[in-house]
Amino acid sequence: MNWYILFALSAKLQKLLKILNNKKELYAFIPLIEYYRRDIKGYALKPLFPSYIFIKTKLNQTQFDILLASMKEDKDGLIKQLKYKDVAALSQEEINMFESLLDSFGVLKMSQAYLIHHKAKIIGGPLQDFENEIIKIDKHNQLAYLNLRFMDRHIQAGLNITSKI
Predict the structure, then answer these.
(1) In this model, does residue 46 exceed pLDDT 90?
(2) Residue 38: predicted pLDDT
(3) How many CA atoms lie within 13 A of 89 on its CB side?
(4) Partner of 114 for a Cys bridge, out of 71, 89, 132, 164, CB 3.0 to 4.6 A?
C-alpha cells in the first residue's frame, strides 16, 4: 500500500475528499488529533496537518499521477502533491509511524500517562510505542510533543496526565 499527500485549499478540502473517496482505488482522509479543549472542558478533534489530505492506494507513483491528471476540474482546490525528489509516496518508516499512531479512522487518540521524575509513563493509547520520543509535555493543554518530525514540524499528541495508580 502506498501513501500520498495532497495540499489543498482549506475551503475545498471536504469537496476534494469526497471526490477522491468516490474513486474505488483510493482511500482519502484528513488525519485528526483528539485534544482537550479547556473552553468546553472536554475533548474535540482538529486536523493534525491542516490543509493536507492523506491517500492510501495500491497505485504506484506513475499511476497515481495519471489519475490526478485525469481528474481535471474535479481537482478544484488542489494546490500540489507533496513530493520528495520525484517520489510522493511516504517512506515505509513514515507509513509504519502513522499506522501505529492513527486509528482506523485516521484519528490520533488521546493517550493516558502519569509522571515519574517529570517524564511521562504511558499507560494507554497510541503513544505506548513512542514513550521515549516525548520531548515536551504541556500538562495545561494536555499535549505531548514528540521527537518525530514530519513535514518539518514535531508531531503533537493528546496526553491525559493522571495520578499514579
Answers:
(1) yes
(2) 87
(3) 18
(4) 164
As given in the structure block, the three cell numbers for residue 93 are: 518508516
Residue 15 CB partners (closer than 8 Å, separation 6+): 76, 77
Identity of the residue numbered 102? L
Exposed, middle or buried by CB within 10 Å (0-12, 13-18, 19+), for 17? middle
Copy the grid coordinates of residue 5.
499527500
Q: What is the chain's length? A: 165
Cα angle, residue 73 at apex, residues 72 and 78 outer, rounded to 5°: 85
| Beta strand segments in the chain, E | 2-8, 26-29, 32-37, 42-47, 52-57, 78-81, 107-108, 111-116, 119-124, 134-138, 143-150, 153-161
